[in-house]
Amino acid sequence: MPARRVNPYRVKLHRSYSVPELADCLGVHKNTVRHWQRDGLTAIDGIRPALFAGSATRTFLLTRQTSRKRPCPPGTIYCFKCRAPQPPALGMVEFIPGIATTGNLMALCDACGTPMHRRANAAKIGTIMPGLAVQIRQAPPRLLERACPSLNCDKPKD
Questions:
Q1: Poorest-confidence range of 58-62, 90-94, 139-143?
Q2: Domain of life here (predicted)?
Q3: Rounded CA gap, 47 and 5, in Å?
Q4: Which residues pair with 97 in a beta bridge?
Q5: Measured at the alpha carbon of residue 46, what is the angle toward residues 41 and 49, in degrees to the nearest 5?
Q6: Comparing C-alpha atoms, which of 61, 111, 74, 104 is closest to residue 90?
Q7: What is the pTM of this model?
Q8: Chain mean pLDDT for the chain
């Protein structure tokens, strides 16, 4: 089962938590809270049972989440295989329009060749991908707008 993110805003700021209370509040195992304590979550005092201030816990969890972010500089798209922002291969990007003014940027990773996707505003393509060849492709037709409806039907003929 993949790990899920802990919501730091479930912790009340003006409350102190013991290890089991904090684990129940965040929906994690109590050993996870002890690992956090080993990694830098500070207890109120050094005696047992360990008590954690809600404000210190929330600050610790928020700094952990923000330190893991990898913002994409202009001209790059995040590659999930490389786990880093990568430039598109051959400097080619496709823009597939979506609803209203937004759409998807699609490119291949320069390092590993994996397809990369990024959501973008059509008006901001020049600032997101400066100096790259962006090909604007037509959006795929919708199911309702088809000229020939599908004849595959489970309804028996009358």
A1: 139-143
A2: Bacteria
A3: 29
A4: 103
A5: 85
A6: 111
A7: 0.60
A8: 86
Beta bridge partners of 134: 93
Taking only the tens place, the pLDDT of each residue in 24-63 is: 999 999 999 999 999 999 999 888 899 999 999 999 999 9
- Could you give the CA distance from residue 114 to residue 82 in angstroms, rounded to a whole number? 9
Instruction: Measure the CA–CA gap between 139 and 11, rounded to whole angstroms.
Output: 44
The dihedrals phi and psi of 121, each to the nearest 5 degrees, come to -90, 140
Are residues 10 and 22 in contact, defined by beta-carbon separation less than 8 angstroms? no
Cβ atoms of residues 17 and 51 within 8 Å = yes
CATH class as words, domain 8-67 = mainly alpha
Cα–Cα distance, 107 to 94 (Å, whole number): 6
Residues 6+ apart with CB under 8 A from 143: none
CATH 1.10.10.10 boundaries in the chain: 8-67
Place of tokens 């129940």: 24
Residue 109 is classified by DSSP as B
> Region 56-82: what's the mean pLDDT?
90
